[in-house]
Amino acid sequence: MRKNKKDKKQDINYLDLIPETNQSIRWHRDLKQRIILEIENKGMFNTIAQKVFGKPRFSKVHLDEMGTFIWPEIDGAKTVQELALLVKEHFGDKAEPLYPRIVKYCVEKQIPITPGCANPSDVEQALENGLDVVKFFPAEQAGGLAYIKAIAAPYVGVKFMPTGGINAKNVKEYLACDKILACGGSWMVKDSFINNHEFEKIRSLTAEAVTLIREEA
Question: What is the pLDDT of residues 34-90, one digit of tens each?
Fold first, then answer.
């Protein structure tokens, strides 16, 4: 997967990463049109095993229905989240529980992940998967800080990262709450600013946001 080497591990949202297939892996379809990957067994020990014990040069991995669907879609352009949405659209209920599967995989591999939540049931699912930080979206539309405080009360160790409706007028109030780990906002980089090349305005609003956060810290 591609990522900026300067990024710190804890700052990465793995759903935004772009997976790439290993171009050295050969693959073909069987009579049922399922994909079979052919992975070459390289290295000294594999070479010895091939000569002495007749171990095959290639190991075959038979992908299931979902694997067969997703393999050609990994094109070096789609993100993990976009690929997950394609699976959900194509397989419907058969793909469920899709996102809990992704979360479980990330937890098992010790990959940082912050799933979105909007109600106590979502928080419960995060806890069941061993997570203690969740993204709360859309924050303002779902009830704002008052709602976060209400649902957070029973979950002593859970922290929230609200996004959606966060702006210069309310960000300090959010950050003042001990249940808030961080906030996400894009008010300083609106599409209109970028399209109109108002980069000085972006710089000014970003500086203002940094100042607000430092004041609260």
Answer: 999 998 888 888 888 888 888 888 889 898 898 899 899 998 899 888 998 899 899
3-state secondary structure the chain: CECCCCCCHHHCCHHHCECCCCCCCEEEECCCCCEEEEEECCCHHHHHHHHHCCCCCEEEEECCHHHHHHHHHCCCCCCHHHHHHHHHHHHHHHHCCHHHHHHHHHHHCCCCCCCEECCHHHHHHHHHCCCCEEEECCCCCCCHHHHHHHHHCCCCCCEEEEECCCCCCCHHHHHCCCCECCCECCHHHCHHHHHCCCHHHHHHHHHHHHHHHHHHC
- Cα distances (angstroms) measured from residue 66 to each of 83, 87, 158, 172: 11, 7, 33, 45
| Whether pLDDT at 9 is above 70 | no
Q: CA-CA distance, 43 to 28, in Å (whole number)?
A: 24
pLDDT digits (tens, 9 = 90+) for 131-160: 999 999 999 999 999 999 999 999 989 999
What tokens does 59 get?
Answer: 């190991």
The whole model's pTM is what? Answer: 0.60
